TrEMBL record:
Organism of origin: Oryzias melastigma
Alphabetical UniProt keywords: DNA damage, DNA repair, Hydrolase, Magnesium, Manganese, Metal-binding
Name of the molecule in the record: exodeoxyribonuclease III
SUPFAM superfamilies cross-referenced by the UniProt entry: DNase I-like
Domain Endonuclease/exonuclease/phosphatase, first and last residues per copy: 12-218
Annotated site, Transition state stabilizer, chain positions: 145
Length: 269
């Protein structure tokens, strides 16, 4: 069982290119997944220095693909990383004391068959990583360019009821992953990509079943780049209880101070 000792916050965002300096500003999270970075090898050093903390890149071309993982005040230690030669996925293996965690940033293809091969490739790498690092703790995030359900996650839909995407759901079931936003928001309709005539939820946080003992929050918000950013927060339940106790103690202490202060003040009347 994997239990975090403090909050771990993640953001996933399709950057649509990072050459605009405004897109390389700091985000309020420990881990930032970026897709469509359009990065090249020669960009790494300069962009990493601008970021001011650890950054990992997997390059596509200057006009397509590319993913990156940026870290900020990150408590874990990166012990290994793997990347796709076409710039569509990046894997980090992280050690938190005695626990290992696998983080995967994904940018899917605009083609179903290519996405199927991509997920098979990720699954093959995951099988080796799980065995090598003795862990089933996995978080996958990013823009998959796939819908989880052709009714709930695609509008307009030609279906009148739930119609799961076989490719996507087979991958999740085989890897024991949960579409955590859907799990927390059953039946809710929300999009991460939209045009004048269509909307779809193409961005996901897939969380291993082993991590569900943590307190998890996931939401979507509009980004300054005109797209959507997806947040994921994991907070250890014990840590959450301690925070709640501390907040309660503060309230009680302030109430006592007010009461005692009023009594002392009355001496001067």
């Amino acid at each position: 069982m994997f239990q975090l000792k403090s909050e771990l916050s993640l953001i996933s965002l399709n950057a649509r290119g990072l050459r605009d300096i405004t897109k390389r500003k700091r985000k309020n999270a420990n881990v930032i997944f970026l897709q469509e970075t359009h990065s090249k090898t020669e960009d790494c050093n300069f962009w990493s220095k601008q970021w001011g903390d650890k950054a990992y890149f997997c390059h596509g071309s200057s006009r397509s693909a590319g993913v990156a993982v940026l870290l900020k005040n990150f408590q874990g230690q990166i012990i290994s990383h793997y990347k796709d030669q076409h710039g569509h996925w990046l894997i980090l293996v992280v050690n938190f004391d005695t626990f290992n965690l696998v983080l995967i940033n994904v940018y899917g293809y605009n083609n179903l068959s290519q996405n199927k091969f991509m997920l098979e490739d990720i699954a093959q790498n995951l099988g080796q990583i799980k065995q090598t690092y003795s862990t089933n703790n996995i978080i996958i995030g990013g823009d998959f360019n796939l819908v989880q359900d052709n009714y709930y996650d695609k509008w307009p839909s030609k279906y009148s009821m739930s119609h799961p995407n076989i490719t996507f759901n087979t991958f999740c079931n085989e890897q024991h992953l949960m579409d955590i936003w859907r799990h927390l928001n059953p039946g809710t309709i929300k999009s991460s990509w939209f045009s004048s005539t269509n909307k779809s939820r193409l961005d996901y946080w897939l969380v291993a079943n082993e991590l569900l003992t943590n307190d998890i929050h996931s939401d979507i918000s509009n980004s300054s780049q005109g797209g959507s950013s997806w947040r994921l927060k994991l907070l250890d339940k014990l840590d959450k209880m301690n925070i709640q106790k501390a907040e309660g103690a503060f309230v009680r202490s302030r109430a006592k101070w007010i009461e005692e202060g009023e009594k002392k003040y009355s001496l001067f009347l």
